Request: fold
Amino acid sequence: MISIDADSPVPPFEQVRTTLAQQMADRTLPVGTRLPTVRALAAELGIAVNTVARAYRELEAAGLVETRGRAGTFVSAAGDQRLSLAQGAAATYADTVRALGIGRAEALEIVSAALR
Reply:
């Protein structure tokens, strides 16, 4: 499910966070999936409990997971809403650049610069 590259300049919590977020985005982890406990995942990966806890906190802050007390941490339906919101924003942007007379290539360059 997740592997940690000890030689990577990316901190372990970020490796956990991005891997889980990617798995949610590509539906490997569908909505409603219960994630391993913080302790279980930390033990499995051989990293500190606080490292996994931080990754889970950041995923929760982003709305990708929800913690249901003792029941555990689950993939949130908000992950599906992210794509819908992004598509809506993209459509609005496309309408705006068309109205301004900005061509496709220039509009894509503007988006690329904004995402850096």
In short: Helices lie at 12-25, 38-45, 49-61, 78-100, 104-115. The radius of gyration is 18 Å. DSSP finds five helices and two strands in the chain. The mean pLDDT is 92.
